[in-house]
Amino acid sequence: MIIKKVFNNNVVLAKNSSKHEIVVMGCGIAFKKKVGDEIDENLVQKTFILKQKEASEKFKLLLEDVPVEHVSLCYDIIEYAKNILNVKLNDYIYVTLTDHISNALKVFEEGLNCPNVLIWEIKKFYPKEFAVGLKALDFIESEVGKRLPENEAGNIALHLINAQINSSYDNVEDMLNITEMIMDILNIVKYTYNIELDDKSLSYERFITHLRFFFKRLNRKEKIESEEDDFLLKQVKVKYKKAYNCMLKIEKYLEKELNDEEKLYLTLHIQRITQR
């Protein structure tokens, strides 16, 4: 491996034997080294091979600003997530999660605590990703001596979920189809209530996120059932009759019978985004 750029004593950009650009980490790997020198492969501890060009370029920019220990920490978290979840993750996870965790540590040091409004839904629909998020908090505490709040486990889980969503589409056409279906669902809500939705509101953002997760679950054929949802759905059906009927229109549009879990959450989201 030949050095193309030195970020610091422990991180370099290199070319491997296949002429591919890779980011290599190792204690003292670039000590007294310069561009064009060969790397001592015995010192290599971690290797980043990002096949997506845009992700690779942004990752290289990130290395200029983020402490090397944060990059190494996030590498360990991502590798752990891949093993536990047994899924493919989009290359951008190395950029987005590293940037997020580095910023989360700065915010924590400033004494701030940013809430995660989706944490309840993340726990409910994605317990495996949330469990990885909690384990990531252990990784962070072990590495930097700071225990981030549970909200951050939800944020980390969200990054992992999004990385799966972005890697689960076979091509751009799949992503466009999902986007089109989300727009159709929003139009169903708008025309049912004869209102314009506030696309800047938190409720709108949560609904869009829920729909993205929903289509991801459909794509992976995941099913979630809960004993309590039949009872809750009956209550919601009476209390929010118009929202429930709107949900039935969405179900008809999807040409798929939804389970009680999805019926419940879609109805509640519709009720939230249509309230003034």
- Can you give the helix content as a percent range? 55-70%
**Average pLDDT figure:** 82
Catalogue the unreliable spans. none
Please identify which CATH superfamily of the largest domain we are dealing with: PRD domain
Q: What best-fitting shape do the alpha-carbon axes yield?
A: elongated
Rounded to the nearest angstrom, the distance between the terminal CA atoms is: 60 Å
User: Strands of the biggest beta sheet: in what spatial order?
Assistant: 1-2-3-4
**Which structural category fits the helices and strands?**
alpha+beta
What is Rg?
22 Å
How many strands, what sense, and barrel or not for the largest sheet? 4 strands, antiparallel
In sequence order, what are the helices and strands, one letter per element?
A: EEEEHHHHHHHHHHH
How many strand segments? Answer: 4
- The CATH architecture name of the largest domain reads Orthogonal Bundle
Describe the structure.
- Pfam families: CAT_RBD, PRD.
- It comes from Clostridium ganghwense.
- This is PRD domain-containing protein.
- Keywords: Repeat.
- Residues 65-170, 173-276 form the PRD domain.
- The chain has a four-stranded antiparallel beta sheet with strand order 1-2-3-4, covered by helices on one side.
- The longest helix is centred in the middle third of the chain and has 22 residues, at 172-193.
- The chain has three domains: 1-49, Transcription Regulation, Sacy, Chain A (Roll), CATH 2.30.24.10; 52-168, Orthogonal Bundle (PTS-regulatory domain, PRD); 175-273, PTS-regulatory domain, PRD.
- Helices cover 62% and strands 7% of the residues.
- It is elongated.
- The mean pLDDT is 82.
- A hairpin with a 2-residue loop joins β1 (2-8) and β2 (11-15).
- The chain is built from eleven helices and four strands; from the N terminus they run ββββααααααααααα.
- It has 276 residues and is of the alpha+beta class.
